[in-house]
Every structure is written in structure tokens, then in C-alpha cells.
């Protein structure tokens, strides 16, 4: 069931913004509790036509009724921008979204780590000189990054926010996990994993956003 009632969100964000402890919430000094304007029906239709997709319902209604970016988990939601007639998302890691392949299905339903199966990094004790070790280490990490950051791992994923330290969270746009929120922990060698509710159900966009909002309210009240 699509959660399309966002009527309370702007008032709750406004209340958070004026609370004396509002700056204590992680990321708040970046997004300042502000939302950018919603998109219009025409803008959303143009965006989806350009991408060849229909966005998952909960995020779609958020864009239409709440905002196109701004206040949200961690440093905030990557905002939508229209530049020279083309739509894209902006933010630290937003460029990891491959707009050209966003309509292709993300095939995964369970956590996976592209780094699995890679050999261990070179051990300095195995080399006759520091120069040889440095060269081997450089080769290893270039190969490691080529494997773990290969673009095919994130086909069908929309990057929505940056948690810091190059850790990010994404919305699955197409494929069997469509509408679910996942974590991209490849920067920490953790791979990709679905976000889940306490009962094990996959977390959708609405629960993901509202959980952040409720946690922010609770944290502020207890500081």
C-alpha cells in the first residue's frame, strides 16, 4: 500500500527548525530543516519521460506534495534540478545514479558485497622493498575499486542521500525490490544491503523518511 499522505511533514519540519536543540541533529546544519518546492505534475511527467520510468509511488507523491529535496535523513535528500531542459539529482554521490540505466532492473533482493572473493591486500612482509610493496598495493586497490565500484552493481538504483564517509542510501527504482530503500556501504567494504523494519519487512521510502523525522523529534525532546 502506497503511503501518499504527507500533509503533516512540513509543519513538523517547521517545528523542528525553531526548536533550540534543532542544530544538534546530525546533518541539520546542512539541510537547515528546509524543503525545496514540490514538483508540478508537468515537471514530474517530463522527468519520468526523460528517464523512461515511473518513480515508485511513495517517492513520487513526496515529490508532488512535499518537496523535490532538502530536509531529510543525514545531510538531506538530494534535490532534483532541471538544467538546460534535462533533469538530474545533485549532491555528494548523486552522480552515482546512472540516469541512462535507471529504467533497467536492479536484480538483487538480498544483500551482496562486490568485494567478496577478492584476495587480501598485499602484505608488506612479502616484498623485498618498500617500492615493490607500494607498487603492488597501488595495483591491488585500483583493481579493488574497479570491481567494487563497477557501475553494473547500481543499475536501477537512485541515490538519495549521503550519510558521510562516502556511505549512501538509495531507492530501488526497478526490478524485484522496486520501492525499497537500500544502503550502499561499498566505501566501507560492506557492499549493498536492503534496509529493513524491526519485523524484517523491507523499508520503503515513506517509512524511511518518517522514521528519520520521528527519531529527530525524539532526540530533540530528550536533549
What descriptive keywords fit this protein?
single chain, 223 residues, alpha+beta, SMI1/KNR4-like, two-stranded antiparallel sheet, 6 strands
Can I get a quick summary?
This protein has 223 residues and is an alpha+beta fold. Helices cover 31% and strands 13% of the residues.
Molecular structure report:
- This protein is an alpha+beta fold and 223 residues long.
- The chain has a single domain, classed as SMI1/KNR4-like (3-Layer(aba) Sandwich), CATH 3.40.1580.10.
- Helix content is 31%, strand content 13%.
- The chain is built from six helices and six strands, in the order ααααββαββββα.
- The strands form two sheets. The protein has a four-stranded antiparallel β-sheet with strand order 3-4-5-6, with no helix packed on it.
- β1 and β2 form a beta hairpin.
- The model has no long low-confidence stretch (mean pLDDT 95).
What topology emerges from the helices and strands here?
Elements: H1 9-17, H2 28-31, H3 41-51, H4 57-65, E1 80-83, E2 86-89, H5 130-148, E3 157-164, E4 167-172, E5 181-184, E6 192-194, H6 205-221
Antiparallel strand pairs: 1-2, 3-4, 4-5, 5-6
Helix pairs in contact: 1-6
Main beta sheet: strand number and arrangement?
A: 4 strands, antiparallel
Let me know the number of strands. 6
Which CATH-level-2 architecture? 3-Layer(aba) Sandwich
The percentage helix is 25-40%
Q: Identify the quaternary structure here.
A: single chain
Q: Rg from C-alpha positions?
A: 20 Å
The separation of the N and C termini measures 35 Å
Mean pLDDT: 95
Amino acid at each position: 500500500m502506497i503511503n501518499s499522505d504527507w500533509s503533516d511533514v512540513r509543519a513538523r519540519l517547521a517545528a523542528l527548525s525553531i526548536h533550540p536543540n534543532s542544530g544538534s541533529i546530525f546533518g541539520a546544519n546542512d539541510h537547515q530543516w528546509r524543503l525545496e518546492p514540490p514538483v508540478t505534475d508537468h515537471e514530474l511527467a517530463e522527468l519520468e519521460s526523460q528517464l523512461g520510468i515511473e518513480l515508485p509511488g511513495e517517492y513520487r507523491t513526496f515529490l508532488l506534495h512535499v518537496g523535490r529535496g532538502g530536509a531529510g535523513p543525514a545531510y538531506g535528500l538530494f534535490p532534483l534540478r532541471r538544467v538546460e531542459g534535462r533533469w538530474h539529482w545533485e549532491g555528494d554521490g548523486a552522480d552515482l545514479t546512472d540516469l541512462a540505466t535507471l529504467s533497467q532492473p536492479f536484480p538483487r533482493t538480498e544483500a551482496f558485497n562486490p568485494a567478496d572473493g577478492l584476495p587480501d591486500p598485499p602484505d608488506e612482509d612479502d616484498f623485498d622493498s618498500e617500492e615493490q610493496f607500494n607498487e603492488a598495493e597501488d595495483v591491488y586497490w585500483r583493481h579493488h575499486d574497479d570491481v567494487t565500484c563497477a557501475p553494473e552493481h547500481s543499475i536501477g538504483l537512485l541515490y538519495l542521500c549521503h550519510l558521510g564517509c562516502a556511505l549512501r542510501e538509495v531507492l530501488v527504482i526497478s526490478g524485484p525490490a522496486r520501492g525499497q530503500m537500500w544502503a550502499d556501504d561499498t566505501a566501507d567494504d560492506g557492499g549493498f544491503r536492503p534496509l529493513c523494519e524491526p519485523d524484517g519487512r523491507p523499508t520503503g521510502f515513506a517509512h524511511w523518511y518518517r522514521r528519520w523525522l520521528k527519531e529527530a523529534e525524539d532526540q530533540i525532546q530528550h536533549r
